[in-house]
């Protein structure tokens, strides 16, 4: 009997505003066997974000119930909000043969690396701090307090990039996309 194919698990991490969403948005247009893991979060939706597409937007109470019910593969607090990856959603996608991309922050990524040592880890880094700040501000989606909190995390986040198998500098979107595509092709060959 032919062995059932199990998908590969990828993590993409990087500071807020580095361009994870932008690069992944393009990646998913042409990689139909890869699925984006839609997280749950207690943060408010940004203009244009859709429940069930970008995130499942939930209340604190709902999120804490999901923690109690052991529904998360990992979860973390980031900048005063909860973010978590649904266990069943990811495991059933992997078991059906899809590759799953987790776009998560560093604490959650560490938990996944411990549970799934074979997962493929990618860190997206900015060309420099000023450019990162410019992108985060240019997105125009956060208030000043939130921007400051996110920028405060950057040094710690960049230090952790050494724990990732691959680092991609997002200088130009097309360059970063090409590097991501090469990594994906190599790891799923
Ligand atoms: P993240 O998902 O990592 O928080 P986004 O994908 O939302 O970041 O990108 C933040 C902002 O930076 C967006 O306005 C996006 O258009 C812009 N951006 C992303 N990648 C680049 C790039 N390589 N060069 C210039 N601007 C970029
Ligand atoms: P944002 O509010 O900008 O969408 O996300 C803030 C941070 O939370 C980003 O680094 C993003 O990758 C991360 N994140 C999104 N979903 C999850 C998740 O399910 N778990 C964890 N640990 N982090 C997440």
Arithmetic mean pLDDT? 96
How much of the sequence lies in strands comes to 15-25%
- Which class of secondary structure composition applies to the elements? alpha/beta
What is the CA-CA span between the terminal residues? Answer: 22 Å
Notes on the structure:
The protein has helices at 20-30, 60-68, 87-95, 106-115, 129-139, 144-159, 173-188; strands spanning 9-13, 34-36, 39-41, 55-57, 72-78, 81-86, 99-103, 120-125, 166-169. The protein has 7 helices and 9 strands. The radius of gyration is 16 Å and the shape is globular. Strands 2-7-1-8-9 form a 5-stranded parallel β-sheet, with helices on both faces. Helices cover 43% and strands 22% of the residues. The chain is an alpha/beta fold and 189 residues long. It starts with 8 loop residues before the first strand and ends with a helix. The structure holds adenosine-5'-diphosphate and guanosine-5'-monophosphate (5GP). Adenosine-5'-diphosphate binds at residues 14, 16-22, 135, 138-139, 170, 172-173.
Short summary:
The chain is α/β, with parallel strands linked by helices and 189 residues long. The chain contains seven helices and nine strands.
Q: Top keywords for this entry?
A:
189 residues; alpha/beta; 5-stranded parallel β-sheet; 4-stranded mixed β-sheet; 7 helices; globular; binds adenosine-5'-diphosphate; binds guanosine-5'-monophosphate
């Amino acid at each position: 009997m032919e062995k059932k194919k199990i998908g590969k698990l990828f993590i993409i991490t990087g500071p807020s505003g580095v361009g994870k969403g932008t690069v992944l948005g393009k990646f998913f247009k042409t990689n139909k066997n890869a699925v984006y893991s839609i997280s749950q979060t207690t943060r408010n939706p940004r203009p244009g974000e859709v429940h069930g597409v970008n995130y499942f937007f939930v209340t604190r109470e709902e999120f804490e119930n999901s923690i109690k019910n052991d529904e998360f593969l990992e979860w973390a607090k980031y900048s005063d909000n909860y973010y978590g990856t649904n266990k069943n959603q990811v495991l059933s996608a992997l078991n059906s043969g899809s590759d799953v991309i987790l776009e998560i922050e560093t604490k959650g990524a560490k938990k996944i690396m411990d549970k799934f040592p074979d997962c493929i880890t990618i860190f997206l880094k900015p060309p420099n701090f000023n450019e990162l700040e410019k992108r985060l501000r240019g997105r125009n989606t956060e208030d000043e307090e939130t921007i400051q909190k996110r920028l405060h995390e950057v040094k710690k986040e960049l230090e952790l990039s050494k724990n990732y198998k691959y680092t991609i500098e997002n200088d130009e979107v097309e360059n970063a996309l090409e590097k991501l595509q090469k990594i994906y092709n190599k790891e799923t060959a």
